[in-house]
Amino acid sequence: MRTTSRKGPFAVRYPERLLSEDEDVLLLFRPHWKVLLPALAWAMLLAALGGAAFAALDPPSQWVAAGVAALLWLLLAARSVLDWWFTSYVLTTERIVVRRGMIARTGVEIPLEQVTNVLFSQSVLERLLRYGDVVLEAAGSQGRSELHDIPDPEGFQHEVYAARELRMLHQRSGGPGLDPVSALERLADLRERGHLTDEEFEAQKRRLLGR
């Protein structure tokens, strides 16, 4: 199965030890970069003020001003950067996982078969910047979960629906609930709609026929 995540030094990683034997990661990402704008604005303002103070003062007062500017940035903006860095959204073939926190970690897991509805909302500005909010409605004790600042929320909605359909297809194909022909037709439909690549379709087909 495919894994979509950011590449490079800021790539998100999900520990393989937390996955079940047949579970694959489909999507893996952090909140949209928009959440870093306040930290960037504070950095620019304090850099300007610190630079002006550095030019106007004599040593060692120059370095004191630079240190005060850096300390103010840490107090005012570093928390938002750390919150962004240590927040991850994960969509696997079995569940949706939200992980937050640097030292005290919190997590929410929603099994795909319990997801009943996926809603997203975007303002005009959010559409231009390609982010928005997603609401997951789930059966049982999970209830309603709100995910904020999701990159491409409409695409995420489609991926969740496709993963849920595939998950339910696998569960029903293991018993008398769905015949192999209907299951293959559902797989082909997912491929036609762009939710499965040709390689993924063949892999799921082999798994289905093997069952």
How are the SSEs ordered, and which strands pair?
Elements: E1 25-29, H1 37-56, H2 61-85, E2 88-92, E3 95-100, E4 106-111, E5 115-121, H3 124-129, E6 131-138, E7 143-151, H4 153-173, H5 180-192, H6 198-210
Helix pairs in contact: 1-2, 4-5, 5-6
Task: Describe the protein.
- This protein has 2 domains: about 15-30 and about 85-210, Pleckstrin-homology domain (PH domain)/Phosphotyrosine-binding domain (PTB) (PH-domain like, Roll); about 35-85.
- Helices cover about 45% and strands about 20% of the residues.
- The protein is elongated, with a radius of gyration of 23 Å.
- The protein starts with about 25 loop residues before the first strand and ends with a helix.
- The strands form 2 sheets. The protein has a 4-stranded antiparallel sheet with strand order 1-2-3-4. The chain has a 3-stranded antiparallel sheet with strand order 5-6-7.
- Strand 6 and strand 7 form a beta hairpin.
- It has helices at about 35-55, 60-85, 125-130, 155-175, 180-190, 200-210; strands spanning about 25-30, 90, 95-100, 105-110, 115-120, 130-140, 145-150.
- Helix 1 (about 35-55) runs antiparallel to helix 2 and helix 4 runs antiparallel to helix 5 (about 180-190).
- Residues about 1-10 have low confidence and may be disordered.
- It is α+β, with helices and mostly antiparallel strands and about 210 residues long.
